[in-house]
Structure formats: C-alpha cells, structure tokens
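Cross-posting from the modeling subforum.

Setting up a comparison between two proteins and wanted a second pair of eyes on the formatting. Protein 1 (sequence, then structure tokens):
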Amino acid sequence: CRNNTLSCRNNTLSCRNNTLSCRNNTLGCRNNTLSCRNNKLSCRNNTLSCRNNTLGCRNNTLSCRNN
C-alpha cells in the first residue's frame, strides 16, 4: 500500500483531503476501511480526529506491508 502512505501524509493537511484519501485507502487496505469511514464523520467536526487518524494511518501502513 505505497499509495496509502502518500495519502496518509496528505491527510495531515486538511480534513477534506483526508476524506479523499480514505476513499482511496478503502480500495487497498481492507483493515483500515472501518476506521476511515468513522474518520470521515469526525473529521468534519474537528481537527483532533485528523491528527489521531494520522497515527492510525501510520500503523495501517505497517499492517499493509505485512499483507
């Protein structure tokens, strides 16, 4: 999931970009699908969830490499 790594980095810029990256991430990372869907809802309301999602995306990158 190399593309997922790039989208997670862009995710720190804004919640809007994060929504797009989560949609693309769903295609390549099955385990991250649920967390991304929830993140889309919370990201609209605040930036803290975006910061937390960045950590989740980093962990997801490791799990994707293992897959």
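Protein 2 (same layout):
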Amino acid sequence: MWHSFRGYGFYGELRLRYLGDNESDFILDAVGRVYGQLPLAALLCRKILCLHGGLSPKLQSIDDIRKIKRGLTEPSGLVEDLLWSDPSPSCMGFKANAERGCSFVFGADVVADRCQKLGILMIVRGHQAVDEGFEISSDRKVITLFSAPGYQDHYVNKGAVMIVSLSHPQPFYKC
C-alpha cells in the first residue's frame, strides 16, 4: 500500500522537506507503519458503513472487516477492495476495475445486496474527487464524500463534510 504514497506525491513532498533520502525513507516507513494500524472502516449508528474505497465480493458481514489483522503493508483481497473499489452506475455485479488496475467496480445491485446482508442503510466513501465535494447515488445508498478542495492543485472541486446526528433522520452535507 505504501507504494501509493510515492505515486500520489507524498514521497516527493517528503524529499522536498527532508533533503536526504535516508530521512525521507525513514519517515515514509514510519508513516506506512502507522497507516497499517488505522481502522479500515467505521460503522456509524450501526447503519452507515464508512470506507475509503468501497465494497468487495469477499465482504459478507461486518465481522469480515473486524477480523482483518492490523499491521498490513501490502493490501490484497478484502483489504485491497475496501481501499480501492469504486461504485459504477453502469455496472451490474462486480467487474475488474480497469481504471485503477486493481480491485473492482460494483453496481447498484451489489450495493442493495450488501446493505441488506450487512444490515445497513448506506455506504459513505471517499477516494474519488467529485465536483461539489459530495455525490449521492440515485438510490441514495452510496455517498462519495471528498473533503479536499482543489485536489492536487489541478481539480476545481469543492470539499465537503457530512454531519450525522441521532436526532436528525437524514445526513447533512456541507460544501
């Protein structure tokens, strides 16, 4: 997974700030170890599954996520899918994610099936810059939420946050 730090500019920024390769490599390794300990998902109010990427054919229960061992350095299988899969409005089922070169794209049929199996109402994910900072699927079961405005200095997207409250029946989105 830490190879993605190099491809998305983090390693380059480390090298600019810490001129020696040894320091940059040391920091990159330390950050990678920290990332390996972070949770891969959050379950809000037992009804909203929050992920970086999306769904997996290997995800059949919330316990499948709970059983994942921490400290991974190279994701595969379920972990890779939770990080890298993407919803696709034109897809049925799961299909190879050609755009990313790993994991899957998944359709609304998969979302409906997994929401029912997992006992959840919706999935909130990041992972893709969207113009308004958030995007809601037509069935309102997938929300893509992107908090970084002007992503990588060449997108003109807004950033957004989402507020979930037990006293409010619907999430509130803010750009």
